[in-house]
Amino acid sequence: KGRFSHSQKFTMGMAIAALSVFVAARLELMRKAVPVLSETSNCAPPGVGMSDMQGAWMMLPFFLMGVAEIYTQPTLLHYAYSKSPASMRTLAMAASFFIAAVSSALFALLVSALGPYMPNDLNHGHLEYGYYINLALGGIFLVPFLSVMRDDGH
Fold it and tell me: Tens of pLDDT along 12-26?
């Protein structure tokens, strides 16, 4: 048995994930504050200029999210596996991966709903709104999950 309980590991992972999203939102606000270069972007529609900020800054939130996944995903898989009867463990794992896919689809819906705030020229949009909504949704879903884990003795 490790130093941290399953709920502690999951909570640490979610906290690191929240930090990752907060850092990404902050980087977006910083990017919008820097001057737009006269060079056009190769990955945006014609005529959209690049911001004078290195894209390498995005490695920080990606790294943090990777660390967060190290804490959350094995914990979720262990929880689903250990609480399932032996005959249902394969189905439990498949359901876990299906739920992960559904969360990606929900994110795609969120991006579609925020379309008016995320135009092709991000210098005129509010990409940070999506980050803030993700933070709120993560907090909302964390509470019932931890409640279930607590009731289950974790």
Answer: 999 999 999 999 999
Give the span between the Cα atoms of 38 and 88, in whole angstroms: 59
Give a three-class secondary structure readout of the chain. CCCCCHHHHHHHHHHHHHHHHHHHHHHHHHHHHCCEEEEECCCCCCCCEEECCCHHHHHHHHHHHHHHHHHHHHHHHHHHHHCCCHHHHHHHHHHHHHHHHHHHHHHHHHHHHCHHHCCCCHHHCCHHHHHHHHHHHHHHHHHHHHHHHHHCCC
Q: The whole model's pTM is what?
A: 0.85
Provide the token pair at 16.
């690191």
